[in-house]
Amino acid sequence: MSLSKNTIKLITSLRQKKYRQKHNLFVAEGVKVVNELLSSSLKIFKIYTTSIDVLQKSNNVELITEDELKKVSNLKAPNKVLGIFEIPSEKEIDTNNFIVALDEVNDPGNLGTIIRLCDWFGVKQLVCSKNTVDCYNPKVIQSTMGSLTRVNIVYTDLISFLGKNNLPTYTADMDGENVYSSKLPEKAVLVMGNEANGISEEVNNVVQQKLTIPRFGNIQQTESLNVATATAILLSEFKRGLK
Amino acid sequence: MSLSKNTIKLITSLRQKKYRQKHNLFVAEGVKVVNELLSSSLKIFKIYTTSIDVLQKSNNVELITEDELKKVSNLKAPNKVLGIFEIPSEKEIDTNNFIVALDEVNDPGNLGTIIRLCDWFGVKQLVCSKNTVDCYNPKVIQSTMGSLTRVNIVYTDLISFLGKNNLPTYTADMDGENVYSSKLPEKAVLVMGNEANGISEEVNNVVQQKLTIPRFGNIQQTESLNVATATAILLSEFKRGLK
């Protein structure tokens, strides 16, 4: 029996933000995701696995049984590995390149998808409002597929950040300029908002430019786009001229 | 007590495809989604609500308690209404317009997002391989936010469909033509594949054109894009010249 009660308690406690902050640790699961994190500069606290063979690195590894993994896993179908990593300290915001900023994005899947999109489109800086879902939330970690370590994510007061930075600021809006005919700069801050309410009024007041993804469906019936798909389309528009 | 044991059994059985097919019924939940479906041409089987006031139509409605709703709801946070609707009969495939085709998309959230994208971009026809997740799956219904009724969805043998239709066929591929510099036709079939494996070899053999969304991130590390975000970007590219 290699997993002590205290270890089990520690691992499951890390599903909650307050314990992740207390211990400065987070959990990642599955062969692919853990191996991606092992190949990054993240500090390993401990890796638990049912099979050493699936791992790219073998330091700090402890073999456990499938039953033990089930006990601590947050996945419906646990996948051989659970890794505990140290949360790295936040780096300064790089304001000299394209930035994606999020205003109260709540859904972990959406944040995970947006981190992957940043990675794909070479966006190295993601700025999140303090009430955006924590990027070390297990569901975010699982959906980023490892791209988390290649994007610098900073949680800060969004209004004050937007007030201080010198890049042009953009957001998505139903009544903005058609994004397909807009001349978009290479460096900018693209601010995306909450799933239900979009960006807050305060943020809206400081964002300079509103972009619209034209709707082709009939009349006004079509629901707005999901924040992750809207981010995909807008990032693609900002970047398409560069390739 | 208005919900009989048999009713509870019927409603919860509809989470499974075989019972949806047996009864030809599906479930939708929440004020917004149910009202969207009520305003469509779908036939109502029964609506259960904790508050008549939230509904746009009041035929076939039965008032239930919050506890009763909790018993039959598939949501973590039940939202006032659960509607049972008849599954409409499949219409013929409209091969005279832009078509999105899916090859074994498994994740209900991805299918829901893709249906919303079709609706947004005015794509009226979605063709799914028989092993694509059922569009009346409760998670699909919840994530389409009502756009389901504005897109004609047909499940069929994809190879045979692709062989018969006369539109040019496209898919996403790592080694295709840069989508940003491709001249794309107004009418086409865009085939998107499975989350883990992409399109099957058989489908790949009959698709004529491969499109690549260029990767801006460093080297080969970046994971591939999620199928829903890739669909968003490609649909945007097909349609952007038209607005």
UniProtKB/TrEMBL annotation, chains A, B:
tRNA/rRNA methyltransferase SpoU type domain: residues covered: 98-235
Gene3D superfamilies: 3.30.1330.30, 3.40.1280.10
InterPro entries the record matches: Alpha/beta_knot_MTases, MRM3-like_sub_bind, Ribosomal_eL30-like_sf, rRNA_Methyltransferase, SpoU_MeTrfase, tRNA_m1G_MTases_N
Protein origin, superkingdom: Bacteria
Keyword annotations from UniProtKB, A to Z: Methyltransferase, Transferase
Domain MRM3-like substrate binding: 6-83
Gene Ontology terms describing biological process: methylation; RNA processing
GO molecular function, one term: RNA methyltransferase activity
UniProt family annotation: Belongs to the class IV-like SAM-binding methyltransferase superfamily. RNA methyltransferase TrmH family.
Name of the protein this chain belongs to: RNA methyltransferase
Organism: Tenacibaculum holothuriorum
